[in-house]
Amino acid sequence: MLKKKRAARVMALALSMAVVTAGLQTAGEGRRTEALSSGDTVRLSYDGYLRGTDDRYYITEGNGSFLYYNADGSTYVAKRSGEPDVRRRNLMLTDVDTGERVKGYCIEYATDVEKNSIYSSQDPASDARYFKNMPEDVKKLMLAAIYYGRNGINSVPVAGADDEDFYFATQVIIWEVQQQLRVMVRDSRGKITGTEKKDAHGLSKDFFYNDLKGRAAEKCYDYIVEKISSHYVTPAFIGESQEKAEAVEMKYSMKDKGWSAEIKDDTSGVFDLVWKSSDISYEKKGNTYCFSTEKALEGEKLLKVQRKTQGGSAAENLLIWHDASKDSNQVISTGSASPPQFYLRLKTDIPAEVTVEKRDAETGRPVAAAGTEFRIKSEDMGIYVSQGMDNPEGDIYKTDREGRVTIGERFQAGTFLLEEVKAPKGYVVAKEAVVFQVDGKSREITVRCDNKPQKGIITITKTGEYRHMESLTDIREKAMGGIDFDIIALADIVTGDGTVRAEKGEVVDTVRTDFKGNVSTKELYLGPYNIVERAAPEEYILGEPVNAALVYGDQETEVIEKKINLFNRLKRTPAPSDESPETGDDNPAAAAVMTLLVSLTLIGASSVFFILRREDR
């Protein structure tokens, strides 16, 4: 057999032990392997040739270019020639104290194994000589081969084969993996999609497969290959390492008062988990993986999870055996262990505490007023928010004296609509809902709801007296156009946000009536005003100032109207004169007319008096 350098032998031994250990899951051959433990000593021997159900021996070729492993994980290739074919035998290890006998596997092909050598065992976690330095994919496939292969626990998986067919098929796959003729297949993301055979280092991919092709062991071989090829195919969120595990975020539900996540994955529908976490629940529904918890997680929780398998098993009693006197000899494994576990990251999002704040739409300042009422609808769920989420009308939330209200429910991530039911006094109710988002990251969210302050206009109708046909006695009413008025604040005009919109005595508007005597002010903030007539025509008495209060109407009206009717009277008494009347008359005709009128008046009065006297008689 090929003589290797001492370092190479040591590597081979370590590798063999590691791989055999990883691969082999052999129960006791007539006794329980649990009796063997770290530190035990055994004697290596061969026990009969491997013969298939067809009564033919299993033989392997001894020549070729073979891959060897150094202790640091590096590899080299050495060529063997002139070696005879090898008729394979059962590799047995016998406990020197108890006589217990178990089967083992050769891990590294074409490495010396000497009969009657004394081997001592180590726990695989303590054996740092070689196995931990092997390529990860090699270790994983070896462990999977033993998990699904012949390990003393698993029964023969196919009809027409026996235990020796199963044993040889398992050994062939271990050699294929060790020689890197069978490798993992990965996609562009690095996710494992299966395994495949390939030529490597001058060795045909079918080098070992040809030794069982067409025989009963081939059926066992196909079975194991199918199992190990699918074992590491996982949903996207499951990682073969911590770094490759994608975080699954469980989202808070206002209905359930807990967190959950449902992930559909069509690429690995057969994958299922052996679940052991007590504070997180797991269920698989078809191709959907469901996780839930009632308690929020602090950051990400990394879980080591095991695949739920069919047809595979392990006694979890894996041991690594080294030749006690010759490091260069083969490393053997007994017992069995499960393949490496997978990794899953779970986290919970953050439900938000929502506070609604009332503000003035014009100034952006808070409106400190109690009693503003809201309700909130979840756009995603299509229902209103309430305690227990079971009130179809939704609960009503009222602001405090500061114009704020904190909702009692914690909000799940999603889109919500804030609907105002009752506006603060002095403001118009918000006619459109305020849309706000909960992102699942913020613990506190303040939603601002703006209201427009209600305003008003003062409409003035101005009329006045006039003498019809210049008559002194026929006084009628008409519209008075062109009359100017000042609108003056009677007090400080203050809106609900505390903003002084006008100071007392401030002229907020000046208006002039049209030809119909009508005029309206601009939109004014609610409050008391004085309407002051600036001037009146010469023949009219100036109107007195009139008070007009703009008072809050209903919350639906944006601008209220206050109507005021104003009236001007004519001056009745001529203005007195300081000049003495002149004697004489510069107009004789006018004097004659006046004399005639006085005479006629006297004659008329005398006639009436005379008639009345006669009737009395």
UniProtKB/TrEMBL annotation:
Record family assignment: Belongs to the serine-aspartate repeat-containing protein (SDr) family.
Signal peptide (from-to): 1-22
Keywords carried by this UniProt record: Membrane, Secreted, Signal, Transmembrane, Transmembrane helix
Transmembrane segments: 589-612
InterPro entries: Ig-like_fold, SpaA_PFL_dom_1, Thioester_dom
UniProt entry tagged with the keyword tRNA-binding: no
Domain Thioester: 104-226
Protein name: Cys-Gln thioester bond-forming surface protein
Chain ranges of the SpaA-like prealbumin fold domain: 353-452, 479-546
Domain of life: Bacteria
